[in-house]
Amino acid sequence: MAKAWRWFHQLGSPKYLFQKTGQWLPWVWAATLILLAVGLYYSLWASPIEVRQGQGHTVRIMYVHVPAAALSMIAYIAMAIAATVGLVWKMKMAFAVVRSIAPVGAAMTFLALFTGSVWGKPTWGTWWEWDARMTSELLLLFLYLGYIALHASFSDRSKADKAGAILAIVGVINIPIIYFSVKWWNTLHQGYSVTEKGALDPAFQTPLFLMLGAIYLLFAALVLMRLRAEIILRNQKSRWVKEWASGSEVKS
Amino acid sequence: MKTHRRNKLLAIIGGLLLLSGAVALILYALSSNINHFYPPTEVSQGKAPLDKTIRVGGLVAYNSVKRAADGLDVEFTVTDNQNSLTVQYHGILPDLFKEGQGVIAEGQLVSKTEFVASKVLAKHDEKYMPPEVEQSLEKYGHPGKKQSTDY
After folding, report:
1. Contact state of A52 with B37 under an 8 Å Cβ cutoff
2. pLDDT in tens, chain B (151 residues)
3. Nearest alpha-carbon partner for A78 in A244, A222, A240, A243
4. Residue A139 in 3-state DSSP?
5. Which DSSP state fits A200?
6. B103 touches chain A (CB under 8 A)
């Protein structure tokens, strides 16, 4: 416990966090690319078509749609947790994490909405319906964009961080609404395939879980890269940043 | 944890709980509008308004689809295995439309058992099956099929 606590404090140091993320990043990228390659192979070739989905191959959209949608929600929860840490423990790096997650989360949300729409047209017969699942996911996109806009509208960064953090925390209420929407209300969107036993044939599970892992890692890699940029941006005046910018290694 | 931090954390959690409560109340009050469609049972209970654009949803009953000899008129029965209603539609049906599959129709109720649709959407359920599994189900009996032939 004491060790975890010390680690938590160390991560609060911009320089330490910059060094550590720099060490992690190549590994995260390597794992991402491997898993993505295997996952895409299974998604696009080594998996069957779905029997009812008309043109056959539309089922393959699921292997991007479901991971993107899962990450869009998990990213927001991570943002809200980081925002809480930032507000309660006054940890500046936590705010940097919130700011780093927002655009990646927004991209995941957009991807989920877009792939869902492309799948919905041939399957359901419509690009868009205002059902509870789709509307709440669209609201999630607006929350991400709202956070980015709100953060950008302050010239003072610490004020921007605080205001944005409050928005990020308040918006987390939307996450259970998205997740349970298909259970609480009658929606056009189908219910849970992944957690429902026997609903998803094992032949679809392999590519889906591989892609879920790959998109998780991709998300982590993108957030870490953004976080490093954010650390540099926020510590321009520090000596170690100047030294780093002039080409020397960051030493602890 | 230091007192001022604990207070701040409690304030955040308390605020979230209050807001969630408010959102829950709003959603509860609006629940009839959030539901995307009425199942046939709710229609037969009189929960769905007549002569207003609404959506009904359920399964297309087996052997109920009647197509007009010429033109695009089609009539079928939507059921939720408790109650059912007849849907009339003029237009092209989506690819997934099939007897025994889920469907959502947008239009107006003429009576508690008759519905005139202006739009028909197929509903995909949570089950994903590769063709081979479907074939063996056809061969050795579809668990869902037996029930719905009672109608």
Report:
1. no
2. 788 889 989 999 999 999 999 999 988 888 777 888 899 998 999 888 888 899 999 999 999 999 888 888 999 999 988 999 999 999 888 878 888 888 999 999 998 889 999 999 998 888 888 877 777 777 776 555 444 333 3
3. A222
4. helix
5. B
6. no
A61: Cβ–Cβ under 8 A, 6 or more apart, which residues?
Answer: A115, A118, A119
Q: How far is A201 from chain B, CA to nearest CA, in Å?
A: 6
* Rounded Cα distance, B122 and A214, in Å: 31
Residues of chain A whose C-beta is under 8 A from some C-beta in B? 48-55, 59, 62, 84, 87-89, 122-126, 129-132, 169-170, 172-173, 177, 185-188, 190-193, 196, 199-201, 203-204
Domains along the sequence of chain A with CATH: 16-245 (1.20.120)
Q: Best of B60, B124, B132, B136 to disrupt the A interface by mutation (most A CBs within 10 Å)?
A: B124
From CA A234, how far away is CA B74, in angstroms rounded? 65
How deeply is A142 buried, as exposed, middle or buried, from its count of CB atoms within 10 A (0-12, 13-18, 19+)? Answer: middle
Q: Largest Cα–Cα distance in chain B?
A: 79
User: pTM value?
Assistant: 0.88
The question of ipTM being above 0.90 is answered as: no
B90 is in an annotated binding site: no
Test A122 with B95 for CB contact under 8 angstroms. Answer: yes
| Nearest-5° Cα angle at A149, A146 to A150 | 80
Mutation test of the interface with chain A: which of B19, B36, B132, choosing the one with the most A Cβ atoms within 10 A?
A: B36
Looking at the DSSP bridge assignments, the partners of residue B77 are: B86
- Judge residue A227's burial from the number of C-beta atoms within 10 Å of its C-beta, 0-12 exposed, 13-18 middle, 19 or more buried: buried
User: For chain B, what are the domain ranges?
Assistant: 3-32, 35-126
Residue B4 counted as an annotated binding residue = no
Distance CA A82, CA A79 (A): 5
User: Letter for the amino acid at A249?
Assistant: E
Whole-number Å distance between alpha carbons of A77 and A169: 9
- CA angle, A13 then A14 then A15, to 5°: 95
| Residue of B16, B27, B92, B128 to mutate for A, most A C-beta atoms under 10 A | B128
CATH, domain range B35-126:
2.40.50.140
Chain B residues inside the 8 Å CB shell of A62: 128
